[in-house]
Amino acid sequence: QVQLKETGPDLVQLTQTLSITCTVSGFSLTTYNVHWVRQPPGKGLEWMGAMWNGGGTDYNSAFKSRLSISRDTSKSQVFLKMNSLQTDDTAKYFCARSYYSSYIYDYWGQGVMVTVSS
Amino acid sequence: DTVLTQSPALAVSPGERVTISCRASESVSTGMHWYQQKPGQQPKLLIYGASNLESGVPARFSGSGSGTDFTLTIDPVEADDTATYFCQQSWNDPTFGAGTKLELK
Looking at beta carbons, which residues of chain A come within 8 Å of B94? Predict the structure, then answer.
């Protein structure tokens, strides 16, 4: 069945770089797209960016200067890397699947909670 | 960015009908989708394209609207529907509403 699972650190120091891996199963990264969405504690959802099935990327302009999304199709993994972390980057980070060229998320990972500490 | 405005909270009794609204700051055509999120869980897609029921979602859930005004209806509400409901638009760069917390009386 379709699964997405995020792995990454619980704690990141202020100004450091966050790296999270989304490992997928039950579908191919060359057929479906994977997006990153985050949710600060007790708050709403924020789209960060996408890895399209063709290998292209798309970013929320709010993150564009410090966010990078990449993939390894042989390992069914999508990577998020974001630098210059601040305390307001504390959030649960989700990867989610979309189909065709859409921004409709039919499957989500359980998320990884990342705290930025000073 | 397209801003989506939702009422913060609603309380209804089981068996009643509830409508959750979402207003967009500009037209998003029918590019509106609804998700249910229970505490500590990931969001779950309920409705896509304003009115299309996602596979496996009970027919108690329905969506309507186009342009700037959208609604998610649950009829009848069940105890398990206690959750926060988010709208999301995909007509422009995707944005989400702040969520409507549904509580049962």
Answer: 47, 103
Whether the predicted pLDDT of A64 surpasses 80: no
Which percentage of chain B shows pLDDT scores above 70? 100
Q: β-strands A91-98, A112-117: how paired?
A: antiparallel
* A44: nearest CB among B33, B41, B98: B98
Classify residue A94 as left (phi > 0), alpha (psi -120 to 50) or beta: beta
Closest approach of A43 to chain B, Cα-based (Å): 7
Cα distance between residue A113 and residue A8, in whole Å: 9
For A80-117, how does the pLDDT look when each residue is reduced to its tens digit (9 = 90+)?
Answer: 999 999 999 999 999 999 988 789 999 999 999 999 99
CB neighbours of B71 closer than 8 A, spacing ≥ 6? B19, B20, B21, B22, B63, B64, B65
As a residue count, chain B comes to: 105
Q: Which residues of chain A neighbour B48 with C-beta distances below 8 Å?
A: 104
Which residues sit opposite B51 in a β-bridge?
none
Q: Quick check: A47 and B35 CB within 8 A?
A: no
Q: Could you give the C-alpha distances from A113 to A9, A54, A70, in angstroms and in order?
A: 8, 29, 20
CB-nearest partner of A44 from B42, B44, B99 = B99
Please say if the pLDDT value at position A72 is more than 90.
yes
Report yes or no: B72 and B85 within 8 Å, Cβ to Cβ: yes
Task: Tell me how many residue pairs between chain A and chain B have CB atoms under 8 A apart.
Answer: 44
